[in-house]
Amino acid sequence: MPLYVIGHKNPDTDAICAAIGYADLLQKQGKTEALAARCGKVPARTAWVLEQAGMEKPLLLDDVCSSAEMICRKDVVQVNENDTFLHAYQMMLSNGVRNIPVVTSEGKLCGLLKYLDLLQLLMPANTDAASVRRMSASPVKVAATLEAESCGAALSDEEEQIVMLVGASSVETVMSRFADATERGDVGSYVVLCGDRPIVQREAISNGVRMLVVTGGFGVADDLLAMAKERGVFVLRCKQDTATAAKLIRCSRMVRHALDNNIVRLLADDSVKDLRTQLAHQQQDLFPVINPGDNSLMGVISKSDLIDPPRIRLVLVDHNEYSQAVEGVEEAEVMEVIDHHRLAGDLVSREPIRYLNEPVGSSCTLVAREYRYAGIDIPRGVVLCLIAGMVSDTLNLTSPTTTDLDREILAWLCETGGVDAAQFTRDFFASGSLLAHNTAMEAVNADRKVFEENGARVSISHVEESGLELFASRRDELDAVLDDLIAEKRYNLALLIVTDITSHHSVLLASGDDHIIDSLPFERDGDGVFQGPGVVSRKKQVFPAVCQALRVAAAHR
Fold it and tell me: Where are the alpha helices (DSSP H) in 283-358?
């Protein structure tokens, strides 16, 4: 299963760049399957960083639930719809299976062949003599099944209706049956089996039967072979005795005649989580997995495969809460966490995992330190990404979240990459204004995190701008988006922080429970906008204030 290094929903620069950096480090440490991923749109400023670094956008993942395609067995025992009963039976025996998918020559699924279905080819439901003797078969398949030598007319590979007749009776009886068949007009469908009986052989050929099968390894006179070729009669010589040959001819029928097409098919992208309930009460034992685009067989799943299926492996960076993680995280296997936020308590694992959580200003700080601990050189593109994550989250070390470790690591990275941190910060924040170039909904959702605290669900969005000139003109649109979030997501509070990174001043808009809003410890101006002088950090300044408001509002209810 794949190993994805991924940040939170609505990823910011720190989340995306930490994922890129740590995936690169894991690859260099031997985990070549590690891939950087994201679960949201790449912000404009982050896109600028990736362009400067010469890096591709990480893979976009909407859901990490395992799919049918991921867990299905791809080394499938299968047969072609034109294969014989004998071939299918031998495949089942040699592989120890009782169900086998049947496909076309192009690999498209036809249906499922079950062990008991093969009995239909051996014995029809109607057991009267005429029905038992009649069947559809290809002369080429009959010859192949008998491993017979063809010495009459050239064999046809087209399937035909045939009537088997064992020429073991007296010559008079056999001749009488030929006469009756000629009168009915179906003697040309007869397959006559006999051993060393030249008279029966001659009568069969002269009456124009479809095929003469000479059993026991006996021969056929040259004049009879010449007559057979002239009259278009197929002649086969086989080593088996007559009774065995008769049984094997029935085994030469094609499996498509016993095919069960009324089966449950699984699509490649079907969620394993959903399949557990959908297939629990199905009588079917084996479930083919198909490509929905062309119906081609991709693999098979049995019910036992769903008991403890393989799971997508994840390394979570810049978050540790399920509410902020990619969809389906509960079904994935979290291998590691690298984060610098509070512990939420809803992350669980079956086995002990590596969990790195420190109170620093950026997840990229921790990733860069891992490189240094490992003594592994960092590619310059990754250096630029890590610098961007750090200056973004710490406002170039001016945020109250900044620690001595952040200062030490940023200086080391800038020296390694030959980067002027101050100039890089100016260029980074000048590369994209959310309020100038995005819709109000895009601006609110670009860096939005959801928290659960004291029984309340809170959404906090953060927009960083070089000045607040555009805020007033967009204020009504932004308020409307917050109101829509409350209505659609049923949050108790939806908060937007717009920070002027040049003056270290934030303005805040809020929607939701009036008791919570009135309890926020920020001053409102005449327009009802909360003012936050010196407020630049969601994690260290705004979220603690929201938690306090939740407690106050709860106490006064």
Answer: none
Lowest mean pLDDT among 103-107, 117-121, 216-220, 485-489: 117-121
Rounded to whole angstroms, the Cα distance separating 441 from 480 reads 9
Q: How far apart are CA 456 and CA 297, in angstroms?
A: 47
Q: Please report the DSSP string for 373-438 in residue order.
A: HHT-PPPHHHHHHHHHHHHHHHTTTTSTT--HHHHHHHHHHHHHHT--HHHHHHHHHHT--HHHHS
The per-residue pLDDT for 123 is 64
- Measure the CA–CA gap between 228 and 215, rounded to whole angstroms: 17
Angle between helices 13-28 and 363-374 (to 10 degrees): 20
Angle, helix 380-394 to helix 13-28, in steps of 10 degrees: 150
Residue in 138, 148, 130 with CA at minimum distance from that of residue 85: 138
Residue written as token pair 């495969």: 305
| DSSP at 352 | -
Q: d(Cα 126, Cα 406) in Å, to the nearest integer?
A: 84
Strand 530-533 relative to strand 505-512, pairing: antiparallel
User: Does an H or E element contain 297, and which?
Assistant: strand 297-302
Which residues are CB-contacts of 519 (< 8 A; sequence separation ≥ 6)? 548, 549, 550, 552, 553, 556
Model pLDDT for residues 450-474, shown as the tens digit of each residue? 988 888 999 999 999 988 999 999 9
Query: How far is it between the farthest Cα atoms of the chain?
Result: 118
Q: Is the pLDDT of residue 140 over 80?
A: yes
Residue 310 predicted with pLDDT over 90: no
